Amino acid sequence: MNPNSMNPQNAVQPTLNTNPNVTPNMNHGGHEMFDVHEILSSTINVLDQYMIFRTFVQSQELIGILDRQYNFILSQYNLTAECFASGQKPHQETATYMIPNMVPPVYGLKPSAPKNQTRAWPM
User: Fold this and answer.
1) What phi, psi does 6 have (nearest 5°)?
2) Cβ contacts of residue 97 below 8 Å, gap of 6+?
3) Residues whose CB falls within 8 Å of the CB of residue 75, separated by 6 or more in sequence, listed in order
4) C-alpha R_g of the chain
5) What does the pLDDT profile of the chain (123 residues) look like in tens digits?
6) Is 39 exposed, middle or buried (0-12, 13-18, 19+ CB in 10 A)?
């Protein structure tokens, strides 16, 4: 057993960022900056696409779905930007998108009687 491993004076202590030139909103590394930039710009692209598609939607039900999803994505975008800018937890928790009044989908084929096949070619 290493005697230094039991001595708390020799243990590696975690250091806090005590540099006065680094404020809480500037405590991100380059990799994190690129990741958040990608996430936020992708989210902006989705929101832009929703607005472009909305002009072509004719069904009121589909417009309602589009609007609910748009508002949900926008709120999550704002939470992500807030957390990254402040370095703190968001003022509200992130949420899961819940689909209201969803009718369960039906998968598979419906059984039917065999169809009478006629031969198109001689054997």
Assistant:
1) -90, -15
2) 69, 72
3) 95
4) 28
5) 444 444 444 444 434 444 455 455 566 677 777 888 888 899 999 999 999 999 999 989 899 999 999 999 999 899 888 887 877 777 777 778 877 887 777 788 888 887 777 766 666
6) middle
Q: Which of 77, 10, 17, 66 is nearest to 41 (CA)?
A: 77
112 torsion bin: left (phi>0), alpha (psi -120 to 50), beta (else): beta
How far apart, in whole angstroms, are the C-alpha atoms of residue 32 and residue 109?
A: 48
Q: Which tokens in the block code for residue 17?
A: 């960022």
Distance CA 86, CA 114 (A): 66
Give the CA count within 13 Å in the CB-facing half-sphere of 14.
1
> Which amino acid does the sequence have at 31?
H
- The pLDDT, as a whole number, for residue 52 is 95
